Amino acid sequence: MTSIQRFLNxxxxxxxxxxxxxxxxxxxxxxxxxxxxxxxxxxxLDAAALRAELSAxxxxxxxxxxxxxxxxxxxxxxxxxxxxxxxxxxxxxxELGIDPGRIQPGPGRSPFTAEMADVLAEFExxxxxxxxxxxxxxxxxxVKAWGAKVLSSATTVEEARWLERHGADAIIAQGAEAxxxxxxxxxxxxxxxxxxxxxxxQVVAAVSVPVVAAGGIADARGVAAALALGAAGVQVGTxxxxxxxxxxGPVHRAALRSEAARRTALTNVFTGRxxxxxxxxxxxxLGPMRPEAPEFPLAxxxxxxxxAAAEAQGRGDFSPLWAGQNVEGCREIPAVEVTRSLAxxx
Length: 346
Ligand SMILES: Cc1cc2nc3c(=O)[nH]c(=O)nc-3n(C[C@H](O)[C@H](O)[C@H](O)COP(=O)(O)O)c2cc1C
Prior knowledge:
- 38% of the residues lie in helices and 14% in strands.
- By secondary structure, the chain is α/β, with parallel strands linked by helices.
- The chain has an 8-stranded parallel beta sheet. It has a 3-stranded antiparallel beta sheet with strand order 7-11-10, with no helix packed on it.
- Strand 10 and strand 11 form a beta hairpin.
- Helix 3 (47-60) packs parallel to helix 5 (114-123) and helix 4 runs parallel beside helix 12 (299-312).
- The longest helix is centred in the first third of the chain and has 18 residues, at 79-96.
């Protein structure tokens, strides 16, 4: 047994990565019932949806589970920047016959709030994880009050030390291979971002809490390698995206099954923050990183109608196709099989 298994009361050292927009309670339940740590992403849920999803998890599994939130500071809307961003996207609006004057504020991503903490307190989840740092001290204290173990992602040694100092009970070392948003919160400089193989042993040396490796881990050999580097467990996202329990949309599933999935990049054009996804038309034609993109998560609103129009035609040209650099583990098999297969050498 590794320290994370003892600490989180897990049969297997496998944590399913929370993946906002690609899964809900069904995947979390399946992974927790398989002996791993299932996770519910909270970033795109309102309080009522969070309550419904937590009820489904408690009804579906006796095992431990994780609830995950973002903790960015919501930016003030900036009309000037929004206008510049829409001008960048104007040729695409023209092509798809979209009137940019009718764009609604997009489906945002909310940070952890007192309202969400109230809902969590009704359920007392055993594990709560954060992305982009940690919430305000008072909110963190509330989560810890019922004994929840708190995890957060670090993308550098400096972030890992900061998280340990500010109360994280375990640290997810998120290598640059990882799919979805970079958890980076102390620096926006891409040169600070290193691969999982380089990051994990350095974080293990720098902190005394358990370290969980994330990014590019897709099979039992990857898990064994992470444990050999000193990790106490792994967090895996991409390998679960084709499971029937995931809610990954059709264009995203098609892209993951295609050769295109072997080419990913970090891009800020979908949300305003760097995230890794399969290179598609929007990333290719704008370039993946654009200084004009409004601050996270505001960039999303102006892209959303393009995404909807293209998806209605079965195309993922304007969709965020989040995926890590290793898609070898993506199979259309139940999450219990993915989980057991990942843990088969431990
Ligand atoms: C589709 C997708 C959505 C993600 N959404 C979240 C999220 O909501 N919260 C979070 O902490 N991490 C999120 N991540 C990042 C994961 O926590 C994790 O770092 C990553 O999946 C690990 O790398 P891998 O995808 O190569 O396994 C997401 C990743 C993917 C692929």
